[in-house]
Design a protein that fits this description.
alpha+beta; 3-stranded antiparallel sheet; 30% helix; disordered C terminus
Length: 205
């Protein structure tokens, strides 16, 4: 093979190798492009499905209009009436100092005030109210007493009554739509187990 033929063969081999590398790079670029396009389409589809789901499964509000309900709280610990804590904030609702949050608060009157819209009924559960006014409350405790603590020399037990009807809902009790607090008296009594419930103190302070 002459030197010219050798140079031509080398040039041809170099061109062939260059075309091979170029084709491989183009194949990688196409694969990357397809992958990127696929990811974008997948994200778009997921986003669209999410929007459609939210639009078609939007949860209805428990009470979408402004309301103003009340309930009277009567706490009796071992025969002694206990008031709810007094307001400490300088903020006011309807010109009165309050304790809690706007949706669930009290005005130094032993009355639960529910004001505003209610997204979920659980938002006005009795436990949420006591949490809002920062008073310990559960199925077995209230304020500074808990089941088993001595009450008049005997182990005490927390009981709950709504309009003098025993209730086991306790924290989960959903406050009813009563504009007049006297129509919904929530009595929480800590007394010796087996004792009779104390008489309700229905006077609003």
């Amino acid at each position: 093979m002459t030197s010219h033929e050798k140079r031509e063969a080398a040039r041809h081999a170099k061109e062939t190798e260059h075309r091979k590398r170029q084709e491989e790079q183009e194949a990688r670029d196409r694969k990357k492009s397809y992958t990127t396009t696929g990811i974008i389409l997948a994200v778009f589809v997921i986003f669209a499905i999410g929007i459609i789901y939210l639009m078609t499964t939007k949860e209805e509000m428990y009470m979408p209009r402004e309301i103003h309900w009340h309930a009277l709280v009567d706490i009796n610990l071992c025969g002694q009436h206990k008031d709810l804590p007094r307001a400490e904030s300088s903020d006011t609702v309807h010109g009165k100092a309050y304790r809690g949050i706007h949706l669930l608060h009290t005005h130094d009157d032993n009355v639960i005030h529910i004001e505003g819209v209610i997204p979920k009924k659980e938002d006005i559960a009795l436990g949420r109210f006591f949490d809002a006014i920062e008073v310990p409350f559960d199925k077995d405790k209230i304020m500074d007493v808990k089941n088993g603590d001595l009450c008049n020399g005997k182990p005490g037990l927390l009981k709950m009554y709504v309009n003098d009807v025993p209730s086991t809902s306790v924290r989960d009790y959903i406050i009813a739509a009563t504009p007049d607090a006297r129509n919904q008296v929530i009595k929480l009594v800590f007394e010796p187990e087996g004792g009779m419930p104390a008489k309700s103190n229905s006077t609003q302070t």
